[in-house]
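[User]
Um, tokens okay?
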Amino acid sequence: MSGLTVEEYYERLKAIQEPKGYYFNIDQKVTFELLEGLLVNRERYGYMCCPCRLASGDRNLDKDIICPCIYREADVAEYGACY
């Protein structure tokens, strides 16, 4: 996973996103599974596409699902969270 652990990635994102008003799920197991999916996708595709969506492997076709994906704002507004 490119030398970055899930825990390190969590801390990095937390420091960046919390000041913007975005917080991780309080269930750390769920959060870490999603973060691991992002890191796996980075290894697989060369970019971090959302693990809750199917990637094509073509960065141009997948640009809408690169984290944070374009669906985040609408999901947060409607559901209070993104997946």
User: Anything to note?
Assistant: The radius of gyration is 13 Å. The helical segments are 6-17, 28-45, 59-62, 72-79. The first helix runs from residue 6 to 17.
